[in-house]
Design brief:
232 residues, alpha/beta, two-stranded antiparallel sheet, 8 helices, 10 strands
């Protein structure tokens, strides 16, 4: 799928201008770049959340980096929010599946807790569960693991791959290792207005070990591309 983005500016400074991106169907696409360059803007534009953009079809789930939890809802209700908005209840099969994933992310004992009682990392895991429960073919993730420590990130990277395999996933990250482990198509973005400075593909099968030669080699290439993009 080739997406052509209309011009988007912030405080009269162009963020996107003549920008286009190819999103591979059924693959993990990672958008890699330094903080504040406009990666989230790209993701929101894909979700149709910018004024003047034609939104994507309804078969799309967008998971923000933070702030996506309803403070009056429990962890379970927040995880199942898209289904609640559509059907106004959580059926048993969904509740069982939700509890299964909450157990995998070590939040099963917090199913009835409210978001304000959770740490930032725990709140991010609730949003992650929402993504894993999504039955839509297109999943947009904005740095879904950024608040987690290194070992938990590795575990949940594998969980994302397990649950979302075969779906079209676009994930924003600023971590070259995360992109090297998860990305099948990886775009290194930089400059203002934003541009693609490097496009890498990786057909290595999952799970990709952190210490595997292919992963280490890809990470090094992405770091070099990041350095070039950051200087643009």
């Amino acid at each position: 799928m080739l997406y052509q983005f209309p011009a988007i500016s912030f405080q009269e400074s162009p963020v996107l201008e003549n920008f286009q991106l190819h999103i591979a169907t059924g693959k993990f696409t990672c958008l890699l770049g330094a903080s504040g360059i406009g990666k989230t803007t790209v993701l929101k534009a894909l979700a149709g959340l910018h004024q003047g953009l034609a939104p994507l079809p309804p078969a799309c789930t967008y998971i923000p980096q933070q702030g996506g939890l309803m403070p009056w809802m429990t962890v379970e209700q927040n995880a199942c929010l898209p289904f609640l908005l559509q059907h106004n209840h959580i059926h048993k099969a969904l509740a069982d599946r939700c509890m299964e994933i909450l157990l995998q992310v070590k939040l099963d004992t917090y199913a009835r807790a409210l978001p304000q009682t959770l740490s930032a990392g725990m709140q991010q895991r609730v949003l992650l569960v929402r993504a894993l429960l999504a039955d839509q073919p297109l999943i947009l993730l904005d740095e879904p693991l950024s608040a987690l420590d290194f070992l938990h990130r590795l575990e949940l990277q594998d969980l994302l791959i397990e649950y979302l395999s075969g779906k079209t996933v676009v994930m924003v990250t600023h971590d070259p290792l995360e992109a090297a482990r998860m990305g099948q198509h990886i775009y290194v973005l930089g400059g203002r207005p934003l541009a693609v400075h490097h496009h890498a593909t990786c057909d290595e099968p999952y799970p990709r070990r952190v210490t595997a030669d292919a992963t280490v080699g890809m990470q090094q290439n992405l770091i070099q591309a990041l350095q070039v993009a950051s200087a643009a």
